[in-house]
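dumping the sequnces here before i forget
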Amino acid sequence: MKRREADKQMHDNQPNDVAISCERLTKRFQERIAVNSLTLSVPKGSIYGFLGPNGSGKSTTIRMLCGLLTPTSGRGTVLGYDVMTQSEAIKQRIGYMSQKFSLYEDLSVDENLDFYAGVYQLGKAERIQRKRELIEMAGLTGREKQLAGSLSGGWKQRLALSCALLHRPELLILDEPTAGVDPVSRRIFWEVIHDLARQGMTILVTTHYMDEAQTCDWIGFIFFGNLLVQGSPSELIEHHGADNLEDVFIKLVKEEEARQAAGQKGGGGGTGDVLVPVKGEGR
Amino acid sequence: MSRFSPARYWSVVKKEIIQVKRDRPSLAIALAMPLMMLFLFGYAVNTDVSDIKTAVWDQSPSAYSRELVSQLENTRVFQVTAHAGSYREIEAMLDDGSASVALVIPPDYARKRDRGEMAEVQMLIDGSDPNIARTASSNAQLIVQNNAITIQEERMQKQGLGPMEPAVELDTRVLFNPNMESIVFNIPGLIGLIMQNVTMILTAFSLVREKERGTMEQLIVTPIRPLELLLGKITPYVFIGFFSFCLVLLLGTAWFGVPVKGSAALLVSLSVLFLVTTLTLGIFISTVARTQLQAMQIAFAFILPSVLLSGFMFPRETMPVVIQWLGGIVPLTYFLEILRGIFLKGVGLEALWKDMIGMVVFFLLMISVAILRFRKKIE
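..and the predicted 3d for all of it:
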């Protein structure tokens, strides 16, 4: 009983303007630490860009937040729900899109949307309305009967996004949504993302493209499972005296690699070595 | 939040139906394979012994010896395929399998019969297949014994005595399958075995396929519950399995002429229960396997023991107790009892309720384990 009360209290104390908050979130796969004591918070209605080289722990973090993986230790709340114990409540309220196309290729655009509408328990009227809106948003009008497998990369991404948005999630989590997508589709995709943020949706997105990162409200940079810096793009550039984000990150990667090479102990501190205050306030 | 949602269940069912319809080759296999298997096995699985290849070495050609040989042939158990002239020839024939049995009639056979002395004939039997050997031996003994009694009676009549009265006589009556045809026993069992194999494989792939294609990742970030997903995946296959069961049932009764003595309604409803059970078993396999190949291997690892342990091939009563227990965890065991009971004996639920409960328990166990195994995680 006590435990539940404590949980409830924490839920109530949660500032209403925070969509995601983690405290010393850690994921260990046997001996390997994939995510090391990660602390971050994402304000509601903002676009948070999650950056880092391949294998740095981005996807693992995202999967913990979605309830796909159980954290080894630490705390995390998504939309006020505990990632350890309330993952099903989280799942009802978030939209998720993985880097690999994960809809049914042998189902048509329409059938994929119908399936997910059913899974999210949309009523008939709402389903028809949402489908019309999303097909229009994704520019898939006229392709409703086409099999998802026969769509090209950009269309597939936008269909996946549509399926993730059917139930009007409060938080949208995108894992490298634009990897391998042509520049035009990429541009369209990001226009949609910004549109959604303007409507009040919180968006957590991982990417390798610096031009995409530049347009995020907040950026977190993760390397070897540690969150190295966090802040708005302009703050980061200013603080490091760099010309652009790309330079900032190359500098950070080199510093971190040098530290790792110098003494294996160095990297263990995690957020202790943050170069910019983790709570980015001024916006 | 955590209640079973018919809407989510139903959307899984609809999705599966669309996918099955698009996957024509698999659907064709699911419907055609049972028919093909029943046809093949219906002829192959035949434990009736007849037309045993017999070599004869007649060293005393006479009316007596010809009479004996024709008596053997008349039973249809023996079929004379060769004549030999020496033990060496007989041995060679038994070695290379051109004969399974050899009848040796000694040179003095006719003379001894004429004189009324005791005549001896020899039968050499290839015992590598005990079933054939036993049938040959007992049939030959019976024929010769009958012969002896007839001769004895003739002699006694000549001496003016009445017919011989045996002191004890056994009157046997074979129930349920009076002609003791093995096909009548085997076809119901085959129907069960075939349905088990076909339906189990249908669902064994269903979850693994989603894992392999990556569609599972998207599915488990939705609020769908394991029970909704698993039941939704089983449901369309119940109908496919049932359709295919009806085909096999029709072929079994019409082509092989094995009648259903009991209630057809009971047969059909218990068969649906069995289908659900094996489909659940397939789903369970799907939660354990990581790839479709593994699912296939696990399914086959299950099929062979189920053939042997269920009593399909060999009677369970003669197995050691531990093996009988093992057979008890195979749902086919219960279904075979049900099939044979309804087909051959025409019994009702009053005789089969235990087997029905066995299947229900197995189903509940499997679906529970599958739900526990199927966590909405990707580790």
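Strands of chain B lie at 52-58, 78-83, 101-105, 122-125.
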